[in-house]
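In the lab's daily routine, each protein ends up as an entry in a very long ledger. A line of letters takes care of the sequence, but it says nothing directly about the fold. The three-dimensional part falls to structure tokens, numbers that each stand for a local backbone shape. The outcome of that step, for a single protein, is printed below.
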Amino acid sequence: MRSFRFVLSRRWLLFAVAIVLVAYATWWLGEWQFHRLADRKASNQVVLRNEAQPPTPVGEVLAADRPVDKTDEWRIVSATGEYDVADTVIVRYRTRDGESGVDVVVPLVTANGTALLVDRGWMATANGSADPASTPAPPSGEVQVTGWVRADGTGSSTQVTSHSVRAISSVAIGRALERTVYGGFVELRSEDPGPATPLEKVELPTLDNGPHFFYGLQWWFFGVLALFGFFYLMYDEWRNGARGDREGRSLPKRAGPKGPQSARSIPPSTGSMAPDTKDDAGDSRKAAARPNSSGSP
């Protein structure tokens, strides 16, 4: 019976190493998706809990030059102050339903002089950018606002250029405007009094679990499929080898070219035999003819 020694060949060993790497990679990717699922569930719970709470004064949640705590994101805060329209900042490349636009951020200067960055909403533009002076004006005078707390963005996209950014960061905007601001920012929920021309309201996050669970299962399925394929190919090679061995043993034996020859196949001799003669003529039928006394045969 054929053994599985062929798996110790260089080709099969390299194949096995490749399959192990593939299986490990798919397992890790599946675990990564399930970790993302757990993080998303935890984030959704924070949003649900904070949305259910009544508005809290901004000073009890946010502070100047202090980042937003993860447990406070999407919490509703209230603040009273005046908008500083001259320091309006445009957030570029904000697309909704396939339409380009911008978000409009205006500092709300509170009674203690600290400004709260308020993302007042979205407006459509033709080229994804806008002049701050062309945006709808916020309410003038003292305004009471409520909004959802958001954490600062990070990276080079937060760099402020000509009163415009790609991501909101209280640190970068406060430095560019040369004013003290609360850490983080708020996305507008309500204004009192209301503006003459309102902007599109902020889009709240979708509180579902996303595709992470099925993505995780998909990666694990790919790993199981790779292992199954390896063992099936190994079995297939073993089966084909065993079949070849059986067919080789069942073939009839044939005489080789150097086998013994039969008497019939021995070629005739080309030599001559000497005649059997006797002293007395006629005693043998094989005797040679002798001349008589007359000299004729």
Observations:
- The first strand starts at residue 56 and ends at 57.
